[in-house]
Amino acid sequence: MNIQKEIEEMKQSMLEDLAVLVAIPSVLDEAGARVHAPFGKEIRRAFDAFIKIAERLGFTVNDDDGYAVDAQIGEGDAYIGVLGHLDVVGAGNLDEWDHDPFVMHQKGNLLYGRGVNDDKGPLLAALYAAALIKKKGFALKYPIRIIAGGAEETSWACMQHYFQHHEQPICGFSPDGNFPIVNGEKGILQVRFLFPKEKNVHFTCKRRLNYVCDDLMVCLPNDPTRFRHADEIKNEGMNWVLRYFGKTALSRNPQRGDNAIFHFVKDICENADNSWQVPAVLHMIAEQFADDFYGEKSKLSAKDANMGTNSVCVMSLNTIENGIELCVDIRYVKSTTKERLLARLNELAQQYGATVEILREKRLLYVDEQSPLIQALQHAYETVMHEKAEVFTKGGASYARVLDQGVAFGATFDGEDPRPHMANECQNIQSLMKACEIYYEALFELAVSEC
């Protein structure tokens, strides 16, 4: 089916709709929660804008008490599902953005703004693909339902609520990953070790969770002038204040960052003396985590022929009211289990005099390459791209995890860096239109054949 011309004709309308959605700072606001707006007024506004767009395109729309909304073409109880989200992470430091993050800006063939890639742009691409199927008047074997959640970046309470009140789709995908096909998403286990408080040392990280630490401040009693890895050293009376900088990256890809905590630990290892007792937490980091992205030193590693390897990321080190907190992110493959990892984490906690508790967890996702769903998506991708649709595993989390039969499918192509969750998040316009074409082929394939 050659639909490129029709998608090109829809492009301006799609981009105008995307600009409307990007202009809504749909970040979780728990304090502003109310009836039909459990995530705050801005996410409610994003839902209302999406409803207006979907109704204009001819969809039947349902509002799930403000937790999620869906837009459907066709009739019937069994359906094909597409799961995306309208909430976004905060803009962070505005000085790091070249333009207002909530005003969509185009430079060349790139769109900039919070949500253009994660996930408002890809969600619209799927919605417009389904609208084109409706426009052509095909007799669908299964209806197509585009589901938009409001808490993907936080609690996932949206999908929990939605599937308490609605049946699972026969199969589906989330346009919140990468092309060709993400048939595996590693399990997620974020934990914190809590150590006894130290009187003479204080740690502060800029971010607590989900990132490689790129900014660590340490307050020490002993002279650190020999510490060659510190970026800043200041004497403040009886104490010294050190600053370490690294390179940020998402905690699911620790190998892409440069961890500031490891710089400090190197200084401690190179300059430890008897003038003060090195806290146990620093011994743990040096001996179990430093410069090891895959858990080999800590015995948290695992390998799987289909899903690759575990990853381990030290996210933050902070002095808090009741002790010192070390937060660690583990992404694990199907050759291991959460239970085995927790057993090892408890061994480590006991070894270094700490306690450990889970902060966040998500089950892993794996769909066999021979499944009818994967076969249909491969055919759709290969029809448009004229190249083999490989399957692969990621450490990220998409709504595909809540499906009994679902995967992440686009919208980022190999080699692109749309900077999700970071300043200057961007989306290639041509790639977005190409994603729309792939989604059209995929939805056509799934809606007229068994999954």
Query: What is the first-to-last residue Cα distance?
Result: 21 Å
Rounded mean pLDDT score? 95
Q: Strand-residue fraction?
A: 25-35%
Q: Which word captures the global form?
A: elongated
Strands, count: 24
**Which segments are poorly predicted (pLDDT under 50) over 5 or more consecutive residues?**
none
What Rg do the Cα atoms give? 24 Å
Helix content: 25-40%
Instruction: State the strand order across the main sheet.
Output: 1-2-6-3-7-22
**Total helical segments:** 9
**Main beta sheet strand tally, sense and closure:** 6 strands, mixed
Q: Which structural category fits the helices and strands? A: alpha+beta
In short:
The chain is an alpha+beta fold and 451 residues long. The chain has helices at 4-22, 41-56, 120-136, 157-165, 260-271, 280-289, 338-352, 372-385, 429-447, and strands at residues 60-64, 68-73, 80-85, 105-107, 110-112, 144-149, 171-174, 177-178, 181-185, 187-195, 202-205, 215-220, 232-236, 239-245, 303-304, 308-309, 311-320, 323-332, 355-362, 365-366, 391-394, 406-408, 411-412, 426-428. The two termini are 21 Å apart.
